[in-house]
Amino acid sequence: MLISCWPLYLLSDLPWDKVLSRSVLLCAGLLLWPLLKWLTLSSDRVFGSSWSTSSFVRYWLLGFLLIVPPAVIFLWSGYRVFDSTWHQELDDLARALVGGFIGGALAAFLEETVFRGVFLAALSRSVGTVAAMVVTSGLYALCHFLRTDFDVADPRFGSGFEALLLSPGPLSHPAQWWDSFAGLFALGLLLSLVRLRSGSLLPCIALHASWIFFLRVYKEMTGRDITSEWSWLVGGHDNFTGVVVAGWLMVLIALYLWFSRANPGPAWR
Q1: Residues 6+ positions from 86 with CB-CB distance below 8 Å
Q2: What single DSSP character describes residue 233?
Q3: Residue 232: helix, strand or coil by DSSP?
Q4: DSSP run (H or E) holding 81
Q5: Nearest-angstrom CA–CA distance, 111 and 134
Q6: Could you tell me if 136 and 120 are in contact, meaning their C-beta atoms sit under 8 angstroms apart?
Q7: What is the pTM of this model?
Q8: HEC states along 149-190?
Q9: What are phi and psi of 42, to 5 degrees?
Q10: pLDDT tens digit sequence for 23-33
Q11: Could you tell me if 216 and 61 are in contact, meaning their C-beta atoms sit under 8 angstroms apart?
Q12: How far apart are CA 251 and CA 257, in angstroms?
């Protein structure tokens, strides 16, 4: 990130914060395979089996069904309302559709590979599966609160280093993000269970990509009522994840454990 930010900024017409975020993704992708070698993890152990287009589509569609209940609750409570002018801004909707699908798939692949693939597999060997799920989910949630919205008027070579030092700043104010953390932590636990019991990383990627896509479109077609008495149901991180999402995900975890109790899933491969 620190090395790539500066030349990428000079070669592109993107704002600094976009260059910074893309540099992080680029470096993460480049470091993935060396990390696997260092941890002596095989690709089969990280990615699992049963990769097929039909499986991806099935889980991607399932993701819609799983995320609809909290979205409906927010509409029912009045916290979010349909934007009556959304059909007049079809260009924005089209960008949300394309960006949500492509960007969602790429982000889901990277995040799931790192957290439910590499970290979960590596930690399971040393601290056990349950502890690995908890630690991985905690790290996954915390990473969402690292600051990335750096608007630098005149970026220079050292701006990447400054961003690295300042990024943990929001973590010093837990009262502002604990509810969003709870939702993201529960999401991490659910996806970890899916990875372990399905024997494949593909369902995690598909579900994650589906949720990103849904949220992009949902937020494009609805707006927040910041004066709503129900605004406490939603955390400030992304104006969606919060206590309602956390509670709903815990229900899904309980149901998933119940219905899959006869099939605890294959061993790590």
Answers
A1: 93, 220, 221
A2: G
A3: helix
A4: strand 80-82
A5: 16
A6: yes
A7: 0.83
A8: CCCCCCCCCCHHHHHHHHCCHHHHCHHHCHHHHHHHHHHHHH
A9: -80, 160
A10: 666 677 677 77
A11: no
A12: 10
CA 138, 141, 142, 143 torsion-angle sign: positive
Non-local (6+) Cβ contacts of 27 within 8 A are 1, 4
Dihedral angle computed from the Cα positions of residues 132, 134, 140 and 141, in that order, rounded to the nearest 10 degrees: -170
Q: Which two tokens stand for residue 59?
A: 């889980």
- pLDDT, mean of residues 223-241: 87
- Tokens linked to 245: 């999402």
pLDDT per residue over 12-62, tens digit each?
Answer: 555 656 666 666 666 776 777 787 788 888 888 889 988 899 999 999 999
Dist. CA 82–CA 223, nearest whole Å? 6
Show the tokens assigned to 213: 């896509």
What is the rounded distance in angstroms from the CA atom of residue 232 to the CA atom of residue 235?
A: 7
Q: Residue written as tokens 């004066």? A: 227
How confident is the model over 152-211, as pLDDT tens digits? 656 666 666 666 666 666 677 777 788 999 999 999 999 999 999 999 999 999 999 999
The pLDDT of residue 200 = 93
Cα gap 3→157, rounded to integer Å: 8
Among residues 263, 252, 257, 267, the alpha carbon closest in space to that of 65 is found at: 252
Tokens in use for 77? Answer: 């409570």
Contact between residue 93 and residue 101 where contact means Cβ atoms under 8 Å apart: no
